[in-house]
Amino acid sequence: MKKALIIVDVQNDFCEGGALAVPGANEIIPYINLLMEENNYEQIVLTQDWHPSNHKSFASNNGRKVGESIILNGVPQFMWPDHCIEGTFGAEFHKDLNRDKVTHIVQKGKNTEIDAYSGFQDNNHFMKTGLDDFLKYHDIQLVEIVGLALDYCVKFTCLDAVANGYITCLHFNGTRAVNVKPDNGKDAIFEMLQKGVTVLG
């Protein structure tokens, strides 16, 4: 069975000192590097948040405060601080992440009008990123998923992987949650388990 590792959004803005730092984010990088070193993956894919500066998910572009919610093109949208703006240091992958074996990069969140948490598609399910096509082209049947953040981009990438027919495993030690609310990470795990995601370690 051919397997791929999907590494979600290990970018400077989500790591220590970043604009949207996830608590404990830097702790997962050595674990992810070890996975790549100790396992034989047919493909290793990075997803990368890559927002235009006028992205509608940014509180600053809506006259809102971070943490508020609006309806954006028919779906609820959490208001985030400006983060992972295309071409900036914050959007770059963290320097400690070993990219020697990476075979593919998927950029997401490029459409100003709609956010994209999942590595597979935007939040409106209008536009695919090409990740599913890439994995199917390479006959991938099993995906292992790590990265940031557990309760947003990792969760939705896992759920879409299951929906697209992949055996889907989440490495618990390879992810951390934003936890806007204290139980968000725990709730995300519960939801993924219900939908058929296997949680490892």
TrEMBL record:
Entry keyword set: Hydrolase, Metal-binding, Pyridine nucleotide biosynthesis
NCBIfam families: PRK11609.1
Domain Isochorismatase-like: 4-199
Main EC class the enzyme belongs to: hydrolase
Keyword Disulfide bond listed: no
Keyword check for Zinc: no
CDD domains assigned: nicotinamidase
Gene3D superfamilies in UniProt: Isochorismatase-like (3.40.50.850)
Pathway: Cofactor biosynthesis; nicotinate biosynthesis; nicotinate from nicotinamide: step 1/1
GO molecular function: nicotinamidase activity
Family (UniProt): Belongs to the isochorismatase family.
Organism encoding this protein: Chryseobacterium zhengzhouense
Protein name, as recorded: nicotinamidase
EC number of the protein: 3.5.1.19
